[in-house]
Specification:
CATH architecture: 3-Layer(aba) Sandwich
Shape: globular
Structural class: alpha/beta
Number of helices: 5
Order of helices and strands: EHEHEHEHEH
CATH superfamily: Response regulator
CATH topology: Rossmann fold
Helix content: 25-40%
Length: about 160
């Protein structure tokens, strides 16, 4: 029995002015969660998703191995990633990004159900720029992703909603 692996070609964004286009990779095994994250990212970028999505080119992966392939080929500006993935985990992806790209690595926002302090510590230590716990409030996620998309820095203590 032969198992065919799906081939996902990289998305090539249209030519736009330098600095105005961002590519984002969303990595989550849950298709509905990926759709929600993509919607929130577009809102954070001020992109209504119409007119060929003027500000964001978004790719999706449901496992860590596909995510790494897309990172290597598409070189996204930002990655939104779950920790619990088939193949490479979110933590393994973070370590690979840091080792391979160092300062040129894409900014990574970890969005996970793994919400304990140890996971948060290791994600940030391994290079994540932000860490949010599912289920998260839409506004909380939009604020963090907007800062990452524009290159702003987050305060270390801003990785949890203020009500926690």
């Amino acid at each position: 029995m032969v198992s065919a692996k799906p081939v996902v070609p990289p998305v090539v964004p249209p030519k736009v002015q330098a600095g105005s286009w961002k590519t984002v990779l969303v990595v989550d095994p849950d298709k509905e969660q990926r759709a929600r994250v993509i919607r929130l990212l577009r809102e954070a970028a001020g992109d209504d998703g119409k007119n060929a999505s003027r500000r964001l080119a978004v790719q999706e992966a449901d496992n860590g191995n596909l995510a790494w392939t897309l990172i290597e080929t598409a070189k996204p500006d930002m990655v939104v990633c779950e920790i619990l993935l088939e193949g490479l985990s979110g933590m393994q992806l973070l370590r690979r990004l840091r080792e391979r790209y160092q300062k040129q690595a894409p900014r990574v926002l970890i969005a996970t159900h793994m919400g304990n302090e140890v996971d948060r510590y290791w994600a940030l230590r391994n290079g994540a720029a932000a860490f949010v716990v599912k289920p998260f409030e839409d506004e909380f996620f939009r604020e963090r992703s907007a800062k990452l998309l524009t290159g702003d820095e987050l305060d270390f203590d801003s990785h949890w909603p203020s009500e926690i």
